[in-house]
Design a protein that fits this description.
Strand order of the largest sheet of chain C: 4-1-6
Distance between the termini of chain C: 127 Å
Strand content of chain C: 5-15%
Shape of chain C: elongated
Order of helices and strands of chain B: HEEHHHEHEEHEHEH
CATH architecture of the largest domain in chain C: 2-Layer Sandwich
Number of strands of chain B: 7
Radius of gyration of chain C: 30 Å
Oligomer: heterotrimer
Helix content of chain C: 40-55%
Largest sheet of chain C: 3 strands, mixed
Distance between the termini of chain B: 7 Å
CATH topology of the largest domain in chain B: Rossmann fold
CATH architecture of the largest domain in chain B: 3-Layer(aba) Sandwich
Shape of chain B: elongated
Number of helices of chain C: 6
Structural class of chain B: alpha/beta
Largest interface: A-B, 59 and 49 residues
Number of domains of chain C: 2
Helix content of chain B: 25-40%
CATH topology of the largest domain in chain C: Alpha-Beta Plaits
């Protein structure tokens, strides 16, 4: 079993002088500041010698007082050990730049693009440094920098000027206001890059090829995104993704809200998994505060998160079925009907259907209502029988199998390399689950299996989700047996100001690994909140998966990912 | 916005007819009236109410989930709340819809696309703002990327608060819209 | 084989259709039963609100504004400031309810609201208040508040006088002496 201190000593012995500063928080967390010159070699060492084969994400932090910027690379392993290494690389605030890890980890691509467009940190050696989330008008303004004046005084409201083009279309421009010009946030020099349309048109090589747009308006994916596919005949040659249509800037907004108010924003990041998001944020803050959560509160959290997982999988599967078969397809209606039962259960505790704002630092908002256990014991067996029926229905339908099997297959190696997680990765056969990997709350005491598939195709992904629902029901039943009365909030007083520190906390979202990196500078507001969303990672794997498939299968593959663009866009 | 936008008026023929004379007087005045005049009569009389009665009971809405409210929109369209009871049927393309439900945050990047969708919808059309993000920007009111007052860009007839509103409130919104159409008080004045 | 499977698949909807369970919630005719924890539209008990404004401060959307309202309790709420909520901004998170020190703000089970104009969904204390005083009660309370204030002022005066008498006894006597 590798521990954090062993990893640290291994780096120190291999690269003397490379580690500028380090902190071993526990056996599972290593914080180290690495010399910018050696970061590539250190990462190579980690991935080849120490099994750090999971690049979990990267965060950019603007330390305006110290006049530097930081890129924090988050590394983990797919089950070989449980250490999460947070490697920081420092760079100057003027003309910031860092070394790109895209050569080493394929999925570093999007994370680095995001840091570039939001903070302006240039990544040397990055193959396609184009904006991902922001519209062209905001490029070069670097909105996540601490001195960005566009927040909160000069926001975009009431600023769009409608211009009617000669063709009769309406376009919008966002001219700078006088105040903005005075503040100096107008983009004087925009970075040069080809636009999305130019990039995809460059790929058209012959007359028999054309581009098909899927989106941005989708009928059955809860959030707009643009998927363009370059087709030749019936085959997809290349796929292009454009996100950011619902980019809300949650990470920036949370920096300007108090710690408590931040909980409400985590709800709205991914609205079908808002309890996991709540848990992730509150867990990270609890870690900084050093709070202990009472046992009853832990059980309540687990029960609700698992209920939330069931409803999320139900709606995800339902959406997928409508995408492949149309809105009238009966299972969609069945799944929504069953989901209403689960939603009613959650609502009876939290008081809201989707956005719960339920988890608090060191506890939960309110206790389980009277008769909750009885209600659960009525609904859960019903859900169990229904889910088994669903599984049977899918397993025996020959048309479904002909359509779904070996469509969009991912091998375990590819899945690991691409950094996807959750049911998408587990369908390939890799048993990677945060509840086992980085256990939180009372999960270590509970008995449950990690569901895995074998082929990693669309059918397997759905199958894994459905079987996971059975496992969730099993977890809830155990919790209901074990829960006993007690306090639901910690007795310690929760201060308005959180002491300076940082924490990285991971939970298993219905869509995969959800991590939050929270930094406090001792104030009443977070200094930085970085969200490592599961669907952001899964989304990235979509474009290579679509290459070479039939057009009709493109929808089947994209749908089986259980998309939530809102969480990818944040 | 007149009825002539809905039913195509053969303008060229109208002009031609106006040139005709009978016993030295224009035909249109004596013999039969122009299409414009027929439309004026429809506008005034109870025929318009019959038109609106038909319209209010067949408000098809665009499936356009944009945020949390979009998830509730699924439920609202599916069996548990069954919007079909009110003649509100979800459609997937703007070409077949009458009601645009703004169900979430409008960002800088999405506003032009959204305007496109709105312009693709055939007349007569109405717009409902569902949820606080659509009304005022909601929790993201001070974000660098969010449009706050969607009312400036779209003629919103009904505002439904909630974050997200329950499916009952979606129904309430549509019932309100139907009432507004019936009373002929909608913003675009059909 | 294939036929048998197809028939089995068709048996599913048939089974559901014959179960006679009620799926559709017939909203306008009947509202579904909501749990006690439901976070619906706010309810204000104007008789105990102290107008501290902590709800307005904790609101992440700053949708609560404190406005003047007549029918509150002048004894507790001296400036008669009560919350006005812009429901076009409120996200029903319940932080204001958790924060209220006297538990006068609650979230009820009423959830349905619609406005034809933007200003229709900005609701003042008149709409929110489920408990309030009548005009007569308010005037009585105001009179009492005045009486208490007057009493307090009098008490203060006497206290000041007494204190002054002790402290300024020498002065007084000097003055008296001067007058004499």
């Amino acid at each position: 079993m590798t521990t954090a201190s062993e990893v640290l000593s291994s780096i120190q012995s291999a690269f003397p002088g490379a580690v500028l500063d380090s902190r071993v928080e526990s056996d599972r967390r290593l914080w180290a500041t690495i010399d910018a010159k050696t970061i590539l070699d250190v990462c190579k060492h980690l991935s080849s010698k120490l099994n750090f084969d999971h690049y979990s994400g990267a965060a950019g932090v603007d330390w305006i007082a110290r006049k530097e910027m930081e890129v924090v690379e988050i590394m983990a392993s797919h089950g070989a050990h449980q250490v999460v290494a947070m490697l920081k690389v420092k760079t100057h605030r003027e003309s910031p730049s860092a070394k790109s890890l895209t050569g080493l980890y394929w999925n570093a691509n999007w994370y680095e693009r995001e840091i570039w467009e939001m903070l302006g940190i240039n990544f040397e050696g990055h193959p396609e440094l184009y904006p991902l989330l922001l519209s062209d008008g905001l490029m070069g303004a670097w909105p996540w920098r601490k001195d960005y004046k566009g927040y909160p005084d000069l926001t975009t409201g009431e600023r769009a000027v409608a211009i009617t083009t000669p063709e009769g279309y309406t376009e919008y421009r966002f001219p700078p206001t006088p105040a903005e010009i005075e503040a100096g946030t107008v983009v004087v020099e925009r970075p040069k890059y080809p636009s999305f349309r130019e990039r995809e048109e460059k790929e058209i090589k012959s007359d028999s090829e054309m581009i098909m747009h899927l989106g941005p308006q989708h009928a059955m994916v809860p959030g707009p995104f643009l998927l363009d596919i370059l087709v030749e005949g019936e085959r997809v040659k290349k796929a292009f993704l454009d996100l950011g249509y619902i980019h809300k800037g949650i990470e920036k907004i949370m920096e300007n809200r108090t710690w408590l108010q931040g909980i409400t924003y985590t709800d709205r990041m991914c609205y079908v998994a808002s309890l996991s998001n709540n848990e992730c944020y509150c867990g990270a803050v609890e870690k900084i505060l050093g709070l202990e959560v009472p046992e009853r509160a832990q059980y309540i959290r687990v029960i609700l998160e698992e209920l939330s997982r069931i409803q999320s999988h139900l709606i995800g599967t339902g959406e997928f079925l409508t995408l492949i078969a149309g809105v009238g397809y009966a299972p969609w209606q069945y799944m929504i009907m069953d989901r209403e039962k689960i939603i009613s259960l959650i609502e009876s505790v939290t008081g809201a259907r989707l956005t719960h704002t339920f988890v608090r630092f060191g506890g939960v908002r309110n206790d389980l209502p009277e008769g909750f256990a009885e209600q659960c014991k009525k609904v859960l067996p019903y859900m169990k029988s229904r889910t088994e029926e669903f599984i049977e229905l899918f397993a025996q339908d020959p048309i479904y199998h002909a359509r779904m099997e070996n469509i969009g297959s991912i091998s375990p190696e590819t899945g690991k390399r691409m950094g996807c997680s959750g049911p998408v990765l587990r369908a390939t056969g890799v048993a990677y689950d945060m509840r086992k990997e980085d256990p939180i709350l009372v999960y270590p005491d509970l008995d449950f299996k990690v569901i895995t598939g074998t082929r990693g195709d669309s059918a397997d992904r759905i199958d894994v989700r459905l079987r996971e629902m059975l496992e969730s029901i099993h977890i809830i039943e155990q919790c209901l047996d074990r829960i006993h009365s007690g306090p639901i909030k910690t007795e310690a007083k929760i201060p308005k100001k959180v002491p300076a520190g940082e924490a990285y906390y991971r939970v298993e979202d219905p869509r995969g690994e959800m991590g939050m990196y929270v930094i406090s500078d001792g104030g009443d507001k977070p200094y930085r909140v970085k969200v490592r969303g599961p669907f952001y990672a899964t989304f990235q794997t979509l474009t290579p998966l679509l290459e070479g498939v039939y057009i009709a299968d493109a929808v089947a593959i994209a749908g089986s990912m259980d998309g939530c663009p809102s969480e990818a866009d944040r | 916005m007149g009825i002539s936008d809905v039913i195509p008026v053969p303008v060229a023929i109208d002009e031609e007819i106006e040139k005709w004379t009978i016993f030295g007087r224009p035909v249109a005045e004596v013999w039969f009236t122009t299409t414009e005049k027929i439309h004026q009569i429809i506008e005034m009389g109870p025929i318009k109410n019959i038109f609106n009665w038909g319209r209010k009971n067949s408000v098809y809405f665009l499936m356009q989930p944009m945020g949390c409210c979009g998830v509730e929109m699924f439920v609202f369209g599916a069996a548990p709340y069954d919007s079909d009871r009110f003649g509100c049927i979800p459609r997937n393309t703007p070409r077949q819809t009458d009601v645009m439900i703004i169900s979430g945050y409008l960002t800088r990047k999405y506003l032009p696309v959204f305007k496109n969708l709105w312009e693709q919808m055939p007349e007569p059309k109405w717009c409902i703002a569902i949820g606080e993000c659509a009304i005022s920007g909601g929790p993201f009111y001070d974000s660098y990327n969010i449009i706050q007052n969607t009312g400036d860009y779209f003629p919103i007839d009904v505002f439904i608060p909630g974050c997200p509103p329950r499916p009952e409130q979606f129904l309430e919104g549509l019932i309100n819209l139907q009432e507004k159409i019936k009373q002929r008080k909608d913003k675009r004045d059909y | 084989m294939l036929k048998r499977m197809m028939i089995k698949n068709f048996s599913w909807p048939l089974k559901t259709a014959t179960q006679e369970i009620e799926i559709t919630r017939l909203y306008p005719e009947r509202m579904m039963e909501l749990p006690a924890a439901e976070r619906g539209i706010h309810e204000l008990d104007a008789t105990i609100c102290i107008g501290c404004g902590s709800c307005a401060r904790v609101c992440p959307n700053s949708c609560i504004e404190m406005v003047h309202y007549k029918f509150g309790n002048p004894l507790k709420n001296k400036k008669m400031q009560f919350p006005q909520i812009d429901f076009g901004r409120c996200m029903f998170c319940g932080l204001c309810v958790d924060e209220c020190p006297v538990e006068c703000l609650k979230m009820g089970k009423k959830v349905v609201m619609a406005g034809w104009e933007r200003k229709d969904i900005v609701k003042g204390p008149e709409f929110l208040a489920t408990k309030k005083f009548s005009a007569k009660e308010v005037s009585d309370l105001e009179a009492e508040a005045k009486r208490i204030a007057a009493e307090k002022a009098a008490a203060k005066k006497t206290a000041a006088k007494e204190g002054g008498a002790k402290e300024g006894a020498a002065k007084k006597s000097a003055k008296e002496g001067g007058a004499a």
